[in-house]
Amino acid sequence: MKKSPTAAFVALALIIVAMAVAPAAQAQDKVTVPTGGDPALACGQKPDGRAYWTEYAFCDLPLDGPGRAKGLIFWSHGVSADRVQYTAPVPPVIRRLAQAGWDVIKINRNNLHERCAGGGASALSGCWSAGGTRHVDDLIARATKARAQGYGRIVAAGQSFGGAISLEANAKATGLFYAVFATSPGHGSDAASGSNARGNYYTLDKMLLDTLSSQRSGRVIVSLPPGDALHPNRDGDPIWPKVRQALQGTGVPFVLLGEGMGINGHGAARTPQFNVWFGKCLQDFLDPARSPGDGETKCPPPAVTP
User: Where are the domains of the chain?
Assistant: First the structure.
């Protein structure tokens, strides 16, 4: 059966459109570097034997670069023994900051180089002493280099173990970082396993409080959600008053999100809800055009929780 001239024309048109769309879609698949970015920092890289490597956090957003960006955010991910963590997405609240003019680079760590496997006190000790301190030095070196390249403001940010790395770096290199953004910060993993699980939790809390007391410069954001299974002392023995006291003693401007924040769990700050509720307040707190003043800035949840 022969097609009518009209049907044949429509079929030909559809083929032409498909041929035009296919290369465009393929081109988009190959775009792994943001506009104005460095191909060496392309998204989606593999370890290839490296202990560390860096890549842009959002390759679909244009890069402003030194001198034009508000600053540079280094994002550090968490740790889970020797399992892959570098593929974890960067939270929506950090994407908000990227859209507001901050460049964001992920510091990825090879999971096979971590020292957190095994569980219990030995893993907790090895996780930090054999790995975490090295990660802190690496972050400081990268921040120093970025400053020399023209980024006037560097933010150390991270989730869980990455949050602890960020806080420790700011404590060690006073004046280097413009701000710290630490979500569910913790100095180890697998604390719940082993015969001294309860003692491990208190060890983690003490390490965190000591680090918070050592903040001497920059704007500090700390999110410690309730219902965190990796740090249950935050509920049974509330850590929030201790954290507030530690930060108040430093004199640095800070935001503390914790008890009553309305979102529970270790990954609370990684949710879209966290960004919707607290993103604008945190964006304003970090804005170079604004001065938060000394002491605490409050970022309350909505008056009526959905």
Answer: 1-30, 38-286
The pLDDT tens digits of the residues spanning 155-212 come to: 999 999 999 999 999 999 999 999 999 999 998 765 555 555 567 778 888 999 999 9
Amino acid at 181: F
Burial of residue 223 (CB within 10 Å: 0-12, 13-18, 19+) is buried
Both structure tokens of 83 = 């399992």
CA nearest 190: which of 117, 119, 122, 125?
A: 119
Please, are residues 154 and 176 in contact by the beta-carbon 8 Å criterion? Answer: yes
CATH level 3 topology of 38-286: Rossmann fold (3.40.50)
Cα-based distances in Å from 88 to 57, 76, 85, 186, 293? 11, 10, 6, 17, 34
DSSP 27-52: HHHH--S-TT--GGG-TT---TT-SE
Q: Would you mind telling me the total number of residues written for the chain in this entry?
A: 306
Rounded Cα–Cα distance for residues 77 and 87 (Å): 9
Over residues 218-275, the pLDDT tens digits come to: 999 999 999 998 887 777 889 999 999 999 999 999 999 999 899 999 999 999 999 9
